[in-house]
Amino acid sequence: xxxxxxxxxxxxxxxHQLPQAKRLVxxxxxxxxxTVSGGISHERLKFLVDTLAETLRNGTEVILxxxxxxxAGLAPLGLAKRPKDLAxxxxxxxxxxxxxxxxxxxxxxxYDQRVGQVLLTADDLMRRxxxxxxxxxxxxxxxxxxxxxxxxxxxxxxxxxxxxDNDRLASLVAHLVKADALLLFSDVDSVYDAHPDDGGSxxxxxxxxxxxxxxxxxxxxxxxxxxxxxxxxxxxATLSSxxxxxxxxxxxxxxxxxxxxxxxGTWFAARNSRRSARDVWLAYLANIEGKLxxxxxxxxxxxxxxxxxxxxxxxxxxxxxxxxxxxxICDADGTPFARGLVNFGSHELPDMLGHSTTELVExxxxxxxxxxVHVDDLALIEPIF
Length: 385
Known about the structure:
Elements: E1 23-28, H1 42-57, E2 61-66, H2 69-74, H3 86-109, E3 115-120, H4 128-143, E4 147-152, H5 166-176, E5 181-186, E6 205-206, H6 230-242, E7 247-251, H7 255-259, E8 266-268, H8 277-285, E9 288-294, H9 296-303, E10 314-318, E11 326-330, E12 336-341, H10 357-364, E13 378-380
Parallel strand pairs: 1-2, 1-5, 2-4, 3-4, 5-7, 6-8, 9-11
Antiparallel strand pairs: 7-8, 9-10, 11-12, 12-13
Helix pairs in contact: 1-3, 5-6, 5-8
């Protein structure tokens, strides 16, 4: 596929090597930056900035994915807790984003470090033109010595184009910029095999997602001001590590130790080859609107990763979707093995099934010579859990 990343895995193979990383993506959660009442904690923010400044001085490029915009906007708007409706969330983000960036700017200025704000929606990493522009912007900022501070554009993002939480956003950004590693900082110091209050022990390294099958990760959102929980962090860490980028999950309190290569948190070892952010989004995070069932020959052709999906190889269509939606591509048993952007709606496809491209043009006219899913818009998947 043209958007596929190079067939490499990060040179960083253990958390002890993090000081040697050339480029890191670091995500910090809302609970690590704000007070209980929802305002920005100057002390917590200063601790994070001091820690990152040391890493930057050592020559490592850092992209910071920072939550906290909505939480920072709560107190100024007189809101006692995080709103549930989208419009109020957008309003809080619009107020809080400026306050958050102003404090980052002031604190990093003490180290003569410039910062730049980059706001993204999921749509920015799905469309080829904006995907390329996002990468160009981030890389140029780094080349100019600027620390990019990335957040989801909550002030305008709709439910349909939201990442859902900044853990997933950080994972995609790490793939976008081909980071050596991803670090997810929150208020939890590690992944445990059971709740620490119940005698659970820290899991130091996870080589394969199967190792987490028996682990109770709790429920997301327990921290209060944030949207994620351990589930979202483990999902993001597994996603990144499964696509070639190692990931460390630990607390913001452990940030300095982690960046010095000390033994903290839970390390998700990289496996498989790197994939592009767009490929990762299609494979694991995009909203699925329907399914296409293929015959055995088409399954083999698509599974190779080098062929487009044609109508001749499709045996059934399930669900309702429009051209441009993401659909699952399944074998004869209905088991998904790929996902892709479909070029025809579900109302058009039934009349096209089993027909060759030549037959479709003859019977249905110009425009039906296109593939149902182009190879550039296909992403093979493997189960994360």
